[in-house]
Design goal:
heterodimer, A: 259 residues, alpha/beta, four-stranded antiparallel beta sheet, 9 helices, 12 strands, 27% strand, B: 314 residues, mainly alpha, 76% helix, 0% strand, globular
Chain lengths: 259, 314
């Protein structure tokens, strides 16, 4: 049984077509990258998988239940999502931001128990953000904020973690740090990780499988070696690049040629 | 957690203190007990309740709109509620429920319109909030001016009401408004954890397990009811909902479980002090307290806007 099973899903926005007839099985403990050019539908697919949007036709199954039929809190206890929409207007201290991850596990008006605070502490420790605990989120750098948001997701104790471009606006050191953290969660904690990525090199280096979308269709799903080829990139992105094995691990690496 | 309890207790004591002192402040020095009990006590009580309502609603609107510069007056909610009150008066509805239903109906309609206008791609930037609030306020003003020209004999009383005063002495009205305001505050406080999640963005709140649409509806209705109940007895008193939650956020932090009660108490202190000033600075005259809060509030708003622009937000 896959962790997430997308069966014949199509979706259109009021403004127009977005995704057509997507079939994708995501096994447990996958580390999957959704890639594709701008407007290919990868963020829309993530929103469908997370339950934010409902498919026009087809079904998305989490274990053996349709995502649309699972209650809000129950779903949030299984799937944590870090969306690209982020607000830091309100100066909540980091610990309170992470404690928000306990919301799905608390009953209405129920207070945080010792066990909930333990989960928060654990999440802070795993993301190496313990020292930021009392700092207001509004004062942190974008790399630190991303770690805090991942800590909040960990505090949700989900089996699936979804992220929409977790490396956007990050320096390369923070980017690598975030991906190492995701790899750690995937390998050591058995979390299924699904990321929308623009950066193909990061997708190839860190993810175990890649799904390539183009004009609302799933073009190819497989290992980075199978999907990220110069031929595929020309066909979908319309860009001429050279793909060659990386010197640090054999995964595909992309080089651009100067004109 | 305990420091928050101390903070709230301190605020509570300050509220009691301000209320007690202001009982003995007024144009009549050494006033007899009859004046204190029958005129000043209802007035202080009204200031307390209206302060609860406006500052509490301000904190809620700011959280739901994810914008620390929102305020029931700027959003046009107060103006719409006032137009509702006047409509009820002009249609000469004599019973109170009609009065409250009209002001609540107008307030809800206005917040719906403002929200629809101000929302751009899931965000409610301050520019569109101000714009939408101004449009709704202009519309309500126009309606009020039509009433003025038809019922010109009552227009001075109406004008004084519109500017915001705490002279309403009808105990029944104070009791009804007080009940609505306290109930509204309690409901919004029950939803404060959801409100905390909403400040992180609606998608984020959804993914944390919050029923976003239900929560927004409950909070908008409860906050609008508080504003409508306040406006029904005191007219349009502006900027309390902007200044007080902003100061309280600096004092007790952004967690709405503490911020909502703290804002309510802070609003009470603010209005009690403002009203004591309004009735003493130009003796024997009285200035409408709404004019006073606007004189303080507008520059404060400009200051906040300037601060935000310097930081590069918006």
């Amino acid at each position: 049984m896959p962790a997430l099973w997308i069966k014949g899903v199509s979706f259109s926005y009021p403004a127009g077509f977005a995704l057509g007839d997507i079939n994708l099985e995501i096994p447990e403990q996958s580390f999957l990258a959704l890639i594709g050019p701008n407007g290919s539908g990868k963020s829309t697919l993530l929103r469908l998988m997370s339950g934010l949007l409902r498919p026009d036709c087809g079904e998305i199954y989490l274990d053996d239940r349709s995502v649309g039929e699972i209650g809000r809190r129950e779903l949030a206890g299984q799937v944590a999502v870090i969306s690209s929409e982020q607000f830091f207007e309100f100066p909540f201290p980091v610990a309170e931001i992470v404690a928000m991850g306990r919301f799905p596990h608390l009953g209405n008006f129920q207070k945080m128990t010792d066990q909930d605070w333990k989960a928060v502490e654990e999440a802070l420790r795993m993301t190496n953000t313990e020292h930021l605990r009392t700092r207001p989120i509004s004062q942190l750098s974008s790399g630190e904020r991303q770690r805090v948001l991942i800590a909040r997701a960990i505090a949700q104790q989900p089996s699936i973690l979804m992220l929409d471009e977790p490396n956007a606006h990050l320096d390369i050191n923070h980017e690598i740090g975030i991906f190492h953290l995701l790899q750690f969660l995937n390998r050591e904690h058995g979390m299924t990780v699904i990321v929308v990525l623009h950066d193909l090199t990061a997708a190839a280096a860190f993810c175990r499988s890649v799904a390539l979308l183009h004009q609302g269709r799933l073009i190819k799903h497989g290992s980075p070696e199978e999907v990220i080829t110069s031929e595929m990139i020309r066909r979908t992105y319309g860009a001429d690049v050279v793909v060659h094995p990386s010197p640090v691990g054999g995964f595909p690496q992309i080089s651009y040629a100067p004109k | 957690m305990s420091s928050r309890v101390y903070g709230l207790t301190a605020l509570f004591l300050v509220t009691i203190l301000a209320a007690s002192i202001s009982l003995f402040i007024g144009p009549v020095r050494g006033a007899p007990w009859a004046i204190i009990w029958q005129i000043r006590l209802p007035r202080v009580l009204l200031a307390l309740l209206v302060g609860f309502a406006l500052a509490g609603a301000g904190a809620v609107f700011q959280g739901v709109l994810r914008n620390p510069l929102a305020d029931p007056f700027i959003l046009g909610t107060s103006g719409a509620a006032a137009a509702g009150v006047m409509t009820a008066g002009i249609l000469s509805f004599r019973n109170y429920s009609a009065l409250y239903l009209m002001s609540l109906g107008f307030a809800l309609l206005s917040i719906f319109v403002v929200y629809r206008i101000a929302r751009v791609n899931g965000k409610t930037p301050i520019q569109t909030i101000i714009l939408a609030g101004v449009i709704v306020s202009l519309f309500c003003n126009a309606a009020v001016f039509v009433f003025f020209s038809i019922f010109y004999r009552e227009s001075f009383t109406m004008l004084f009401y519109l500017l915001g005063t705490l002279t309403e002495g009808n105990p029944a009205l104070i009791a009804i408004s007080g009940t609505i305001i306290c109930a509204g505050l309690f409901v919004t406080w029950l939803f404060s954890r959801e409100l905390n999640a909403l400040t992180q963005g609606e998608e984020t709140a959804f993914h944390l397990g919050v029923s976003v649409e239900t929560t927004k509806k409950v909070l908008f209705v409860a906050a609008s009811a508080m504003v409508a109940a306040a406006v029904s007895v005191a007219g349009m008193i502006g900027f309390v909902g902007l200044i007080v939650p902003h100061m309280m956020r600096m004092l007790v932090g952004p967690d709405h479980r503490v911020l909502i009660p703290a804002s309510a108490l802070g609003g009470a202190v603010f209005l009690i002090v403002a009203d004591a000033l309004a009735r003493t600075v130009l003796p024997p005259l009285e200035i409408p307290v709404g004019a006073l809060t606007a004189l303080v509030g507008s520059p404060y708003f400009v200051y906040l806007l300037h601060q935000k622009q310097k930081v590069g937000e918006f």
